[in-house]
Amino acid sequence: MPDLFNWLLVFLRASALLAVFPLFAYSNVPRPVRIALGAILAFLITPLLPIVSTASLDLWSATGLMALEVGVGLLLGFVSRMFLYALEIAGSLIAMEIGLSMPGGLNPFTNTSTTEVATILQNLGVVLFLSLNLHHGLLVAFQRSYDFLPIGGGRLHEAVVLDMLSRTNHLFWFALQMSAPILAVSFMVTLIFSVLSRAVPQMNVFMENFSVRLLAGLTVFGLTCHLMGEHIANYIGRLPEDVVRVAQLMGMN
Question: Secondary structure of the chain: what % helix, strand, coil (to 5)?
Answer without folding.
Answer: 75, 0, 20
